Amino acid sequence: MKIITDWKSKMCLLLVCSTLLFSCKKILDPEIIELPTADNAFSTSADIEKGVAAAYSYLRAVVPDKVFLMGDVRADVFSSYSQSSNVRPETPIATNTAPALIRNGGGNWNQFYTVIAQCNLVLEKIPSIPNYDETLKKRHIGEASFIRALTYFYLVRFWGDVPMNLKSVNIDNLSRTPQADVFNQIKADLDVAIADLQTDYGDGDKAVRATKGAAWAIKAHVLGWLQDYAGCEKLCDSVITRGPYSLVTDTLNLISIFVGKSNEGIFELNFDANLREVQKNLVYNRTLGRPWYKDQSDGGGGTEKFLMCPTRQQLNNMFPPSAVDARLFTWFDRTTYLKGVYDDRIYFGKYKTLQLKGDTSSQNINESNIIITRLADIMLLRAEALASTSVGRAGEAAVLLNKVRARAFATPYTGGGNIQDTILLERRKELIGEGQYFFDLVRTRKLDKDSKITQADWYEKGAWLLPIDQAIIAKSNFLITQNEYWK
């Protein structure tokens, strides 16, 4: 993979940012949006603030759509009306076939490397800035390190061995780096973020800019992915006991979590029409129907048959009709669930807070935030770690599991069955639509139990990895090689 990040190329990237959407209110002040020119780029700490803003913007451009498709749809959580008619092009992703994955962007990692290139440039330029307030300097280093770590974490979970570049200027043709080395860099970056960032900045950027708590949370996920459940549990405990987070307790208003910046938000991607942060985002467009989303330019003619949602059987498996669970009528639209209207399409409602004056011709109508991690996620991740054989504290795991259930008035877990399977199901119910479940199934080695990837040796064969687009392989002069399962 050839990564070109020379000065002119980077300036082009920076100038493009002026038309992109930034992720935080403070960064969106007019003087921040005016990005530096080639003559004065990165000469002050304010310029670095603009560079950090660009990194958040690039992250928001790639993560929501990619992670929804490869984290939820690939896990067979969302589907079209049928497998034979009115099928959206995304539905075959769950069958794990190369054409379906490639056609829906599953082979293209280029946008992730745009985020990384921006972080590399910021981190390289920070030492040369004069008169830099030390607290602000540490924050900028921590944020850029956090964003780079999160981006590489997505890359290795999607493709395994990936090229690793830490330079702002690198014209080398890079081969794939072993996952173990990439994970070492991810952990190192997160350790920098943990050391440099504060738990709360109190400046209106709650949850939408990186903090120490966000770095703890992502590193907990990294260690869980690496099967280091003891380390994962300790980091989750830091988030829960030392972070400024609490569960949203207004059960009738759980949707406020996705409006954004709730008490349980740890890190999320901000979307606010007032801050010019709307964009065409197919997470929203794929899952919303009348009365929230009426635009007919999505190829579906505005009909609910083209929407993506769990089937009624899948919902019944998660939320048995006889059981009480407030999330059923919060995560999903009550009317469509009860009446089965529009060919039994059941609207997924987490992201239904749309800008009423949105531009329906370009589908720029979303305002809900995209959640990367929140307190309920980390509570359930800690429960998973506690219940693991390596930690073996199932009683404590049940307490955390029941705290999440209690918020939804769901029946408490009192024992019986496999508590690890119970926690996994709870993660599916709580975090559906947040791009977590495919990663959960791989991490717990249960992908063949609850997806369409059913071969017994799926992990060893690498069936969980995505293929790499042939164009990327060719442009590397075939230094980049295809994942073994897809050869």
From TrEMBL:
Mind telling me which Pfam families this protein's record contains?
Answer: SusD-like_3, SusD_RagB
List the keywords (alphabetical).
Cell outer membrane, Membrane, Signal
SUPFAM superfamilies from the UniProt entry: TPR-like
Chief site of localization: membrane
The record's Gene Ontology cellular component field reads:
cell outer membrane
* Every RagB/SusD domain range: 350-449
Record InterPro entries: SusD-like_N, SusD_RagB_dom, TPR-like_helical_dom_sf
The protein's location, in the record's own words, is: Cell outer membrane
Tell me which domain of life the UniProt entry assigns to the organism this sequence originates from: Bacteria
Q: Which PROSITE patterns match?
A: PROKAR_LIPOPROTEIN
**Membrane-spanning intervals of the chain:** none
What region holds the SusD-like N-terminal domain?
46-222
Q: Which family does it belong to?
A: Belongs to the SusD family.
Q: What is this protein called?
A: RagB/SusD family nutrient uptake outer membrane protein
What is the protein's species of origin?
Chitinophaga eiseniae
